[in-house]
Specification:
- Keywords: Transcription, Transcription regulation.
- The chain has two domains: 145 residues, no CATH class; 252 residues, Rossmann fold (3-Layer(aba) Sandwich), CATH 3.40.50.
- It is 47% helix and 15% strand.
- The protein has 17 helices and nine strands.
- Strands 1, 2, 3, 4, 5, 6, 7, 8 and 9 form a nine-stranded mixed sheet that branches.
- Strand 8 and strand 9 form a beta hairpin.
- It is globular, with a radius of gyration of 22 Å.
Length: 419
């Protein structure tokens, strides 16, 4: 029976765990994954006893200060306990520990957070290269910015535009006030960000107009689950209302989606892309995590979380000490994603990512054609990665660029135009 438990075989081994001294070998990834799948299967079949027993074993493995597998397991276990408590009631599982309190960062802290790994800047760099190429020769450019990183992408684009032969274009950036209430959180209003960006642009000789479109519910850190669930409708109503975006003749329109589409309900994504296409942009850039985490099966989502989110936990071991505030915030942000993927239902505004390959198929079905990245844009990405750990790399997948860690796909960026 001890061998059956260590190899992840059969529910019987788990049921007899109280008489078993599990081996330290159980800490390796495949065995942890088997235990997680046992727990998921038990929850899906409402077998509270088996779920509790699997959680007991996982609790002896998980450690917030351990290796990448142990740290990831601690967040997966938290999400499983929260789901068990909700589905089965407090009697069904030990109450989950309170989640770490989310803290709004300063602009400087957000910059440090983004700089720790290339997870976000990869998309910024690749997308900016595609945007510059698409608007070459345009006297006026309008970017509708749909992102969760609060305009961190744009200083670099402004700087690059300032060096354009013949002079920079007039630049307009529009952001919606409604956005997913997910980390990283910033304790600065959009209007203040606009003032800072405008001052920076002025110092570079670029004329910048910054607009905030207010529609729908607030998405502050205290936003409700109901607000998250209605985000897609609110956003679509903004995009389908050209007067609110103040579209102008003669402007090259770009729609920039950074870590955004996974927060739109899967059943509403085609309608979202229809609204984007109706604006007739010259370019749409999409950056997101290269993982399929939208299966209706809890076990499949847990397996996907374990295989994908291991990437950042492993990469962070090379980036900063474990007590680094920015590192702690990165790992907590992953934990927040796991709670949404494992613990929340679609009706709750859950986060459901889909891979770059599936996104490409969706874009093509909705009337977009891929725009390949030129070698200059790919070269800028490689220069960015040279500033980070050697495990990071980039590969091409059809028209997209994909950030990799030790060969595993992490984040994709694609550029699209109405076909």
């Amino acid at each position: 029976m001890e061998q059956e438990l260590r190899t992840g075989g059969g529910g019987g081994g788990l049921r007899a765990h109280s008489s078993v001294c599990f081996s330290c070998a159980l800490i390796d990834g495949p065995r942890i994954q088997q235990l997680l799948l046992h727990c998921a299967a038990a929850l899906e079949s409402n077998d509270v006893t088996l779920a509790q027993q699997a959680m007991w074993v996982l609790n002896n493995i998980a450690s917030s200060q351990g290796d990448p597998n142990q740290r990831l397991t601690s967040w997966l276990l938290r999400a499983l306990v929260a789901r068990a408590c909700r589905l089965c009631g407090p009697a069904g599982a030990t109450q989950a520990a309170p989640a770490p309190r989310e803290r709004a960062m300063s602009v400087t802290e957000l910059a440090e957070y983004v700089d720790l790994t290339p997870w976000h800047r990869f998309g910024f760099t690749a997308s900016n290269g595609a945007i510059l190429r698409a608007v070459a020769g345009s006297a006026a450019v309008h970017v509708v910015d749909l992102s969760v990183t609060r305009c961190m992408q744009w200083p670099t684009l402004i700087d690059m535009m300032s060096k354009r032969p013949g002079g920079p274009p007039a630049l307009r950036i529009t952001v919606p006030s409604a956005r997913p209430a997910v980390p990283p959180l910033l304790g600065v209003p959009d209007e203040e960000l606009g003032v800072r960006l405008a001052n920076f642009a002025k110092s570079k000789g670029v004329q910048l107009e910054f607009n905030v479109v207010s529609k729908g519910p607030s998405t502050s850190p205290t936003s409700s689950t109901k607000n998250k669930a209605t985000l897609c409708q609110d956003l679509a109503s903004v995009l389908s209302d050209p007067p609110s975006l103040a579209l102008r003749d003669g402007e090259a329109l770009v729609v920039n989606c950074q870590s955004w589409i996974r927060h739109v309900a899967p059943g509403s994504r085609d309608a979202f892309l229809d609204a984007v296409r109706a604006l007739n942009p010259c370019l749409v850039t999409v950056t997101d995590e290269d993982a399929d985490l939208d299966s209706p099966s809890l076990a499949s989502r847990i397996e996907g979380c374990f295989n994908f989110h291991w990437i950042l936990f492993d990469a962070l071991d090379t980036s900063a000490p474990r007590d680094s505030p920015r590192r702690v915030e990165h790992e907590a942000a992953v934990g927040r994603k796991i709670e949404s993927v494992v613990g929340a239902d679609d009706a709750d505004g859950a986060e459901r990512s889909e891979s770059g390959a599936r996104l490409a198929e969706r874009m093509q079905r909705n009337g977009f054609a891929g725009v390949a990245f030129d070698e200059e844009a790919a070269g800028e990405v490689r220069r960015l990665l040279s500033e980070h750990a050697t495990g990071w790399g980039v590969k091409r997948e059809e028209d997209m660029l994909v950030l990799t860690w030790k060969g595993h796909g992490a984040v994709y960026t694609g550029a699209w135009a109405p076909s």
